[in-house]
Amino acid sequence: MRAFYVNDVPSFIKQSESDILGEMAMNNPFALEDLQRNAWLEEIRLLKNVLGEVGRGDIIFEYSIPRVGRRIDAVYIVDGLIFLLEFKIGAKEYSKYAIEQVTDYALDLKNFHKESHRCLLIPILIATKAPEIVLEFQEMKEGILEVSKCNRNTLANMLKLALFKFRAKDFDAKVWIDSPYAPTPTIIEAAQALYRGHNVSDISRNDASAVNLNQTTEAINDIIDRSKREHKKSICFITGVPGAGKTLAGLNIANERHKFDENEHAVFLSGNQPLVDVLREALARDESARLDIKKNEALTKAKAFIQNIHHFRDDALAMQEAPNEKVVIFDEAQRAWTENMLLSFMERKKGKSDFFMSEPSFLISVMDRHKDWAVIICLVGGGQEINTGEAGLIEWFDAIRKDYSHWDVYVSEKISDSEYTRGLSMKQLFLDLEYVVVDALHLAVSLRSFRSENVAAFIKAILDVEKEHAKKLYDTLRNDYPIVLTRDIDKAREWVRMQAKGTERYGIIASSGARRLRPSGIWVQSKINAVNWFLNDAADIRSSYFLEEVATEFDIQGLELDWAVVCWDANLRLIQNHFHYYSFTGSKWQNVRNKDKILYLKNAYRVLLTRARQGMVIFVPNGNEEDITRLSIYYDGIYQFFKEIGICEI
Questions:
Q1: Half-sphere exposure of residue 390, counting CA atoms within 13 Å on the CB side?
Q2: Degrees, nearest 5: CA angle 570-576-578
Q3: What's 230's DSSP letter?
Q4: Is residue 553 a part of any domain in this protein?
Q5: CB 74: neighbour CB atoms within 10 A?
Q6: Containing domain of residue 42, as a range?
Q7: How wide is the angle at C-alpha 210 spanned by C-alphas 209 and 214, nearest 5°?
Q8: Same domain assignment for residues 102 and 137
Q9: pLDDT by residue (tens digit) across 588-629?
C-alpha cells in the first residue's frame, strides 16, 4: 500500500491509539517488532497533542517512497502545505544522517511525485530529546525548504509558525496520496528496488514522450513465451540513447524471469566489471541490512543474479553441456570482443591457439546448445564502444548470418542509426537475414537526465561539432539541467558541492587518456575501487564525495552521478571546427590515426558527458606555455566552442 494509515485530523484525534496502531500493523508487510511498535505509539501520541491545537488537515503515516526503498514516518497536509515529518524517538541530537534522510524524501517527492511539483514541501526532523534551537525557515530550492529541526516540545510552535508564514492553495489530500509517483532511479537504486520485489512501474517514469519500460518488458516477455511455446531460439536487440534505461530494462527482465519458472532460469550478464561489482555489492548491502543476514550470504545470492559475462564464457569453455540459464541478458552487447581479441586472450590465458570465433559467435553457440528453446537479449548502447577489441553490433549479425540463421531475430528500426551500425544501412546490416521489427525494443528518451530529455542529443551535437544545433539544444535544457564551464578545478569542486543536496552523489570524472591533467590534481592512472567510490558515504575519503579520486570512462560506464565534474584534456582538441585525437606516450602527445582508436576516444568523452543526472561543470585547464605538453592552444579551442554555444563560466 502507498501508506499504512490515512485519516483527517479530527477523526485521527478521536480514534484510539490501539485502533490506529492496529491499522498500521495490518498494512505492514513485516513482523511488527517492539521497537517499531513503541516508536509508532510515541509518534501517534505526540501528533495527537500537536495536531489537536491546529484541528484541521490530513495525517498520513508510513508513506512509501519506492525509489529509495523507504517510508516517510508521517506526512501532514494542511492549508495547501505539505509537512514531511521524520521522527527520531529518544534522539538527543539532530544527526547529519537523519537530516540527509528527510532531505532525500523531500527531493524525491519534488522531482518525481506529480502532485508535489506545484506544492511547498516543508521537511521537519523531530529528535524528541534534542536541545531546543531557534525556529526558522530557509529555502533549499524552489518549492522545498531546508530541513527544520525541533524536539517534542517545539513541534507545535514549528507548525504554527509555518502556517502563519506561508500561504498556498488548498487541495484534496486524497489526490496527493493517489498521485502518480514517477521516479527516475539510479541504476543502483533500481536494482535494489527490483530485488526487493518492486515492479519496474513503481520505480520508473511513464511519460507520453518515452517508450515505457513496461512496454519493452512486455515485448520481451511475449518473445520469451512464444519461443518457449513454439520451441524456438530467439535473439532480441534492445537499443537506446545513453541513459534511456537499457540496463534497467535488462535487470527487470532478469528479475522477472528469474522468479518465473524453476526450470527456466535467467541471468544478467555484463562485461563491465565495475558495474557488476557495484551492483552486486549494493544488492548485498541492502539485503543484509533489511533481512539482518550476513553480507557474504547476501553477496552469494546477488552473484547468481548478476554475473560477469567473461566468467559465464569461461565456464562454457570448460564444458559442452547447455548452461542452466534459458534466458540471458547481455548488457552492453556492442562491447563483446572481436575474433582477434578473443583469440589473443585464448592464447595468453587458456593456451588455445586454434580458437577462431568472435565473442558474439561463441556466446550464441553456448545458448544454441539447448535442444528446445533459448532466448538471448542484447542491450546495445549507441556510440558506447570505448576499448580496443570491442566488436560492435555488426559482429552479432555476422555471427547469426554465418552460423545461426535458424534463430529468430527481433530488432527496432532505430537499430540502423549510425551510432549502432558505424554507417551501414539496414539493408546492408541484415543482408540475407530475416528479422522482425518491434518498435518497443528501442528506448528513445534518456531517463538518466530526468531534468531534460535533450542532454544526449546535445552531447552528440558537441562531439559532431554541430555548433548551431548544439546552441538550440542548450537553450532547451539550460534552465532544467545546469551545465557550466570553468578553468579552475577548485571552483569546479565547490560548484558540485553547492548543487548537491541530501545524499545526491557527485564526483570527478575524466578520460583514461587525460594524462596531462595531473598538474591540476587529476590523476587518471591511479585506479579507483568502484565499490567504494560509488557506494560509500561522504565520511569515507575513498568515496566520490571527497573529489580526490578520479573515475574514468571504464569505471563509470553504465553507472551515474547526480552531479559531475567532467575534466577535459588535450587528448581531444578542437581546432578550426574539427576534433583532433591524441594519446600521451612517454613524454609527448602523439596523433591518433587509427579509425577504431579515434572512435574509442570520441566515445570515451560521450560516456563522460552523459553520466550526470542533474547537471555538470566542465573543467578545461588554462594550459601552461612553459610546459610543451600543456600549451594553451591545446585547450582554448574547446573552451571557446563551449562559450560560443552559450555555456556560462563560473
A1: 23
A2: 65
A3: H
A4: yes
A5: 25
A6: 3-177
A7: 135
A8: yes
A9: 999 999 988 998 899 999 999 999 999 999 999 999 999 999
